[in-house]
Specification:
The protein has a single domain, classed as Rossmann fold (3-Layer(aba) Sandwich). A five-stranded parallel β-sheet has the order 2-1-3-7-9. Helix 4 (about 75-85) packs across helix 15 and helix 5 packs parallel to helix 11 (about 225-240). It has 15 helices and nine strands. The chain is of the alpha/beta class. It is globular. The chain has helices at about 1-35, 45-55, 70-75, 75-85, 95-105, 135-145, 150-160, 160-170, 170-175, 185, 225-240, 270-275, 280, 290-310, 320-335; strands at about 60-65, 85-90, 115-120, 200, 205, 215-220, 245-250, 255, 265.
């Protein structure tokens, strides 16, 4: 009898310890979500990823990955409206090759695209922060939205000093001083349709116009040895899954060249006249388009995709109701703002 009582006591202790451990995990998870660094609303990476995760599985045919150039330059809902092409801007600011690889692996868990459009600027983005990315904040923007995985741990251990890695496992340790600036946005469920700048398949309508002169930079691709390794893994992943690849440079004041480019490459900076792109009306800043430029470029891209790839028109097809709902919301906002497509 005494033995059974001791066993029962041990089980209660183990159960209590387990409950306490799970409670601590839940608290840490909540603190990371609340205090973690967040992008400005129109650039929000976590809202784009949140909307993507809510999409019905295997309904995206064209996956757009890369940096903010794609975020502001391709109006994915317009591809649906024009040709029934289901596309999504799965992008984040200042994304570089290692981040693109990890993001792509995560994105392919729920979707089986026929084509992946890569932003070529991921190959030349600044990497002053330990050879990885522009700065610490952009590192958090890219890493904090990715779930913990062996690949993520490997990337952090490969690039970041040991003393800083804890801040990426537990972001609230780095950003707990944000408590004075917390708002409802930090506590709420960050859906793509929430807030002042709704997101439609990863695209956000921004009408800002850049009034200063833009001087085009000539930037050659020059991958570091470590970036080259991640690039190869990324291309092998696409080949393994039978996904076609297209590299894209959106008109953005950065003419990127790659001598001996081994993949399909559409350089929008060399097609500005055909696209109808004009800096004085279509740029939101020195390197990004506004909605007017995005419409022009997406219309051109739509025709290019139809001519060069076999992509289905899913309009009216069962299983794509969610896509139609998102794009209908996009149409309505465009009409409200008086923007023509």
């Amino acid at each position: 009898m005494k033995k059974k009582s001791e066993e029962s006591k041990k089980k209660r202790v183990v159960a209590s310890a387990l409950i306490f451990f799970l409670f601590c995990l839940a608290v840490l998870s909540a603190e990371n979500k609340i205090f973690g660094y967040k992008d400005k609303e129109e650039w929000s990476t976590d809202r784009r990823i949140s909307q993507y995760r809510e999409l019905k599985e295997n309904t995206i045919d064209v996956l757009i990955v890369g940096s903010s150039h794609m975020m502001s330059g391709i109006a994915a809902p317009l591809l649906w409206e024009k040709s029934g092409i289901s596309a999504y801007n799965y992008v984040s600011r200042n994304q570089t090759v290692p981040f693109t690889y990890l993001s792509l692996k995560e994105a392919l868990k729920t979707q089986k695209p026929k084509l992946i459009i890569f932003d070529i600027s991921i190959l030349i983005n600044p990497s002053d922060y330990y050879g990885l990315v522009y700065d610490e904040y952009h590192a958090h923007i890219n890493l904090d939205t990715l779930p913990l995985s062996a690949e993520k741990i490997k990337l952090m251990s490969e690039y970041l000093p040991v003393k800083e890695q804890i801040n990426y496992y537990l972001p609230f340790l780095r950003f707990h001083t944000r408590w004075k600036e917390l708002s409802g946005y930090d506590f709420g469920r960050r859906n793509g349709q929430d807030g002042e700048y709704p997101i439609y398949n990863g695209f956000c309508i921004v009408k800002d116009v850049w009034e200063k002169e833009i001087v085009t930079q000539e930037l050659p691709v020059n991958l570091s040895e470590r970036w080259q390794a991640y690039f190869q893994k990324m291309m092998e992943l696409c080949k393994e899954k039978g996904i076609e690849v297209l590299f894209l440079d959106i008109p953005n004041g950065q003419n990127i060249t790659w001598e001996g480019m081994p993949y399909a490459y559409l350089n929008g900076n060399q097609l500005e006249e055909e696209i109808g792109y004009q800096e004085k009306t279509d740029a939101r800043d020195e390197t990004h388009m506004n909605v007017f430029g995005a419409i022009k470029f997406t219309n051109y891209l739509n025709e290019y995709l139809k001519q060069n790839y076999e992509l289905s028109d899913h309009r009216g097809e069962a299983g794509y109701e969610q896509m139609e709902e998102i794009c209908q919301s996009f149409r309505e906002e465009m009409q409200e703002q008086g923007i023509t497509k």
